[in-house]
DNA sequence: CAGTGAGCGAGCTTCCGCTTGACTT
């Protein structure tokens, strides 16, 4: 017999809580949700008031069985899932699936894992909040309806296996719209003027003209005027200022800072944070709360007093401003403030230190600044030069932590200014005019996209990283770097009353680790905007969230809310299926000078492609795939025609021909019936014999390195180098080599032992041959000729 | 895995949020 069974969501949490509660309590974890809508059809009985069909998923069956057995033996079952909509639903599903008795079931909540909080929770149990559960069911069902009705439309109208959903489709939309903004952005230039003066004490003073000057002629006029001008200080203003620390980390701000400061992807950040959490180093890493427990603030206080002294202490309570935050947990913080650093991998250490610093800094004093502004009059011009400086009077929290921002501009004007007096006259040493260009709005990184989604209230801490992965896996967007282009700019220098003009070159538009929409992402987005603008609008989530809140407050019935949404939505789904044309981003880009036929681009079954002629004609059309960096919207006729020069013979090596072509997996070389992939930087249209031989030799070398050793006793056993480190291959099965063993020193008997004692993983090589790609039949009987604003030509006519 | 852009037309894909391993070459 068991006295008390407590069920929480996370196993690491279970371990901690068990310590607080003592031996009368067994604490187990449900590992998140234990069941979900069936995947057969919709998993929802539309005809029957949207009754959900819940199924315990395969990977949860053993957990459910274990919990059920324990619950039978327990006197009291405490459902301690998180205090938010999803947590309430988990409690309810547990109650149903474990067939708990109302009289022996208690629902408790706590949003910090401290002994006090937990013991308090045990003293104040409540019942499951059915309204909140219904709000979750409405959320779940709405997402299923949207996802499982929109995706199949894309399979029919664009390409199989695509997906759409309330969250991912908006994420893609944000990127596509930003890309269009960038494409249509017209950069304008103007001249930024800065001057270097000499004070009468002989100090340097750098100042900037308050406005930029638009044209070069005006700029030269201004510089000519400066020749005869006197410069006089008209004002010296000192203003106190302060900086306050940022709040402790949430999931989203942690992802942003780890991206900026450490260069982590959002998935990487979450994986490292998970390890820190499991090792008991930090609190839970999926949270939207900036709140710290009183215990944590106390511990931070102690640490600050010890390390920095009273002057640096200023405890604070931060309030969450994020739309739709549910605050079931604390902010992400160290569990022990006494450890400012930990042992672990390099990544773990760096992320931990970031969290430690941010949390400690959040409880420290403001930094005190003094800003100085010096105004300099120009005797025969009505604009002024301004020198501004900033001096740190007291560092406060900056001693520990400094927050980064995405758009960190030039900080050349910061620092201490020399002491000067009003009415003092200055001598110029140099006045410089540099042509500057307005910059298009920045492209998104993974982390800045998460920030944007959070601002819109779309997605949750547990889904940010998976959403970012999904839109990349579907091919809608790609994270990559792109080289910039050279741009000339003019520099004018006035020195010794002479103006010298120079033209310089800079690289502009280079991007690193940015998200770019692919053609398929653009086509899918345009299709969804055309037909389901409301669902993928930026405020759709916010407006349904309001309704979920009303359900949670008991002011709205969940299936009525769903019905109100579903009826018109489903009608739109059906009419779209019936009437809309196939949408493949087709565009006629010109006429082939050789055949006189139309050259068109569109999304083909294998991705973006270009085509000469069309099916209806007697002669079959010719096809070619677009290459990296080429886009349906922007490819020119010349570039397209180039693609038909493949496959191309490059020369011969070892008496065999080398040819280059583009296949299903990108550009490749063929030599002696072997294939060699080209690198990202190689252009199949330009690659020469030398580079080709280099690639061939490189692959051969890699093949050689793959084999670490074999044994004369049994040629079937091979020790190989793989993507995840060395492993043993034997009988088409693979075996991991234990970490404490050195692969190169393994003996035959060692290998036999590993094979016998460790679990094998199947090698993928033996998989059944992939069936050729197939296309779903187009249902549209009549192609209504549609024209969207962005497509330059109409789709096919019949 | 490697030159396709379809045919008779099965049978498959897909959502968002909660949680971790198991698994991959």
Strand order of the largest sheet: 9-10-13-12-11-14
For the sheet with most strands, the description reads:
6 strands, antiparallel, barrel
Distance between the termini: 76 Å
- Average predicted confidence as pLDDT: 88
Main structural class: alpha+beta
Quote the beta fraction: 25-35%
Rg over CA atoms, rounded to whole Å, is 33 Å
The oligomeric status of these chains comes to: single chain
Helix content: 25-40%
What are the low-pLDDT stretches, counting only 5+ consecutive residues below 50?
764-798
Shape: globular
Count of helical stretches: 19
According to DSSP, the number of beta strands is 31
Primary descriptors:
798 residues; six-stranded antiparallel barrel; DNA-binding; 19 helices; alpha+beta; single chain; disordered C terminus; five-stranded antiparallel β-sheet; 33% helix; 25% strand
Structure characterization notes:
This protein is of the alpha+beta class and 798 residues long. It is 33% helix and 25% strand. It has 19 helices and 31 strands. A 6-stranded antiparallel beta barrel has the order 9-10-13-12-11-14. Helix 5 runs antiparallel to helix 15 and helix 5 runs parallel beside helix 16. The protein is globular and about 100 Å long. The structure holds one DNA strand of 25 nucleotides.
Q: How are the secondary structure elements laid out?
A:
Layout: E1 2-8, H1 11-21, E2 25-29, E3 35-37, E4 44-45, E5 51-52, E6 54-56, H2 61-73, E7 74-79, H3 85-97, E8 105-107, H4 115-123, H5 130-157, H6 168-183, E9 189-198, E10 204-209, H7 216-228, E11 231-243, H8 251-262, H9 266-278, H10 294-307, H11 346-361, E12 367-378, E13 381-394, E14 425-437, H12 446-455, H13 464-473, E15 477-482, E16 485-495, E17 498-508, E18 511-517, H14 519-532, H15 540-552, H16 558-579, E19 587-591, E20 598-604, E21 607-612, E22 622-625, H17 637-642, E23 648-653, E24 656-663, E25 666-671, E26 674-677, H18 689-706, E27 707-710, E28 718-722, E29 725-730, E30 733-736, H19 748-757, E31 761-762
Parallel strand pairs: 1-2, 1-7, 7-8
Antiparallel strand pairs: 3-6, 4-5, 9-10, 9-14, 10-13, 11-12, 11-14, 12-13, 14-16, 15-18, 16-17, 19-20, 20-21, 21-22, 23-24, 24-25, 25-26, 27-28, 28-29, 29-30, 30-31
The protein binds one DNA strand of 25 nucleotides through helix 3, helix 5, strand 24, strand 28 and strand 29.
């Amino acid at each position: 017999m068991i006295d008390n069974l407590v069920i929480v969501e996370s196993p690491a949490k279970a371990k901690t809580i068990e310590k607080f509660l003592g031996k009368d309590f067994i604490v187990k974890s449900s590992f998140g949700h234990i069941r979900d809508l069936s995947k057969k059809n919709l998993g929802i009985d539309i005809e029957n008031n949207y009754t959900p069909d819940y199924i315990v998923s395969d990977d949860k069956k053993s957990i459910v069985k274990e919990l059920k057995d324990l619950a039978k033996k327990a006197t009291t079952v405490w459902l301690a899932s998180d205090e938010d909509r999803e947590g309430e639903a988990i409690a309810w599903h547990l109650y149903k699936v474990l067939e708990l008795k109302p009289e022996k079931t208690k629902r408790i909540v706590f949003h910090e894992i401290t002994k006090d909080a937990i013991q308090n929770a045990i003293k104040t149990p409540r019942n499951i909040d059915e309204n909140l559960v219904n709000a979750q069911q409405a959320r779940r069902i709405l997402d299923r309806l949207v996802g499982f009705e929109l995706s199949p439309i894309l399979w029919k109208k664009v390409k199989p296996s695509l997906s759409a959903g309330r969250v991912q489709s908006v994420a893609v939309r944000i990127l596509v719209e930003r890309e269009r903004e960038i494409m249509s952005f017209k950069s304008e230039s103007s001249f930024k003027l800065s001057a270097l003066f000499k004070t009468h004490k002989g100090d340097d003073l750098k100042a900037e003209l308050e406005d930029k000057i638009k044209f070069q002629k005006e700029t030269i006029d201004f510089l000519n005027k400066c020749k005869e001008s006197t410069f006089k200080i008209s004002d010296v203003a000192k203003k106190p200022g302060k900086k306050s620390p940022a709040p402790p980390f949430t999931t989203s701000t942690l992802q942003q800072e780890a991206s900026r400061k450490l260069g982590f992807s959002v998935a990487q950040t979450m994986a490292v944070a998970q390890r820190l959490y499991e090792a008991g180093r930090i609190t839970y890493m999926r949270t939207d709360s900036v709140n710290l427990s009183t215990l944590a603030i106390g511990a931070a206080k102690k640490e600050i007093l010890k390390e920095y002294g009273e002057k640096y202490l200023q405890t604070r309570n931060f309030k969450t401003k994020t739309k739709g935050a549910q605050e079931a947990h604390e902010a992400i913080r160290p569990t022990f403030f006494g450890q400012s650093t930990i042992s672990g991998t390099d990544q773990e250490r760096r992320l931990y230190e970031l969290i430690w610093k941010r949390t400690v800094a959040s409880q420290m004093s403001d930094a005190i600044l003094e800003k100085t502004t010096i105004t300099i009059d120009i005797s025969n011009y009505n604009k002024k030069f301004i020198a501004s400086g900033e001096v740190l009077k007291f560092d406060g929290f900056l001693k520990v932590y400094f927050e980064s921002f995405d758009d960190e501009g030039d900080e050349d004007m910061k620092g201490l200014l020399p002491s000067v007096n009003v009415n003092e006259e200055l001598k110029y040493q140099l006045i410089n005019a540099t042509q500057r260009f307005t910059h298009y709005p920045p492209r998104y990184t993974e982390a800045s996209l998460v920030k944007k989604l959070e601002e819109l209230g779309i997605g949750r801490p547990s889904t940010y990283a998976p959403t970012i992965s999904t839109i990349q896996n579907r091919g809608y967007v790609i994270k990559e770097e792109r080289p910039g282009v050279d741009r000339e700019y003019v520099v004018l220098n006035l020195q010794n009353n002479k103006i010298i003009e120079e033209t310089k070159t800079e690289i502009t538009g280079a991007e690193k680790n940015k998200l770019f929409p692919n053609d398929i992402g653009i086509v899918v987005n345009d299709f969804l905007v055309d037909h389901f603008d409301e669902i993928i609008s930026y405020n759709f989530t916010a407006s349904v969230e309001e309704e979920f809140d009303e359900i949670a407050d008991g002011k709205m019935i969940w299936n009525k809310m769903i019905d109100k949404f579903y009826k018109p939505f489903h009608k739109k789904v059906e009419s779209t299926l019936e009437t809309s044309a196939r949408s493949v981003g087709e565009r006629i880009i010109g006429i082939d000078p050789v055949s006189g036929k139309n050259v068109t681009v569109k999304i083909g079954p294998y991705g973006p492609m270009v085509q000469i002629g069309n099916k209806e004609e007697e002669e079959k059309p010719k096809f070619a795939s677009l290459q990296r960096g080429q886009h349906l919207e922007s490819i020119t006729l010349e570039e397209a025609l180039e693609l038909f020069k493949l496959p191309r013979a490059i020369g011969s090596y070892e008496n065999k021909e080398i040819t280059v072509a583009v296949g299903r997996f990108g550009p490749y070389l063929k030599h002696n019936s072997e294939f060699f992939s080209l690198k990202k930087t190689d252009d199949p249209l330009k690659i020469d014999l030398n580079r080709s031989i280099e690639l061939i030799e490189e692959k051969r070398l890699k093949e050689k390195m793959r084999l670490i050793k074999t044994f004369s006793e049994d040629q079937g056993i091979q020790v190989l180098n793989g993507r995840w480190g060395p492993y043993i291959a034997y009988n088409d099965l693979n075996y991991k080599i234990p970490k404490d063993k050195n692969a190169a020193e393994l003996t035959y008997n060692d290998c036999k032992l590993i094979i016998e004692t460790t679990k094998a993983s199947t090698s993928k090589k033996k998989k059944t041959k992939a069936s050729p790609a197939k296309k779903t039949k187009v249902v549209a009987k009549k192609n209504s000729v549609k024209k969207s604003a962005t497509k330059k030509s109409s789709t096919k006519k019949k």
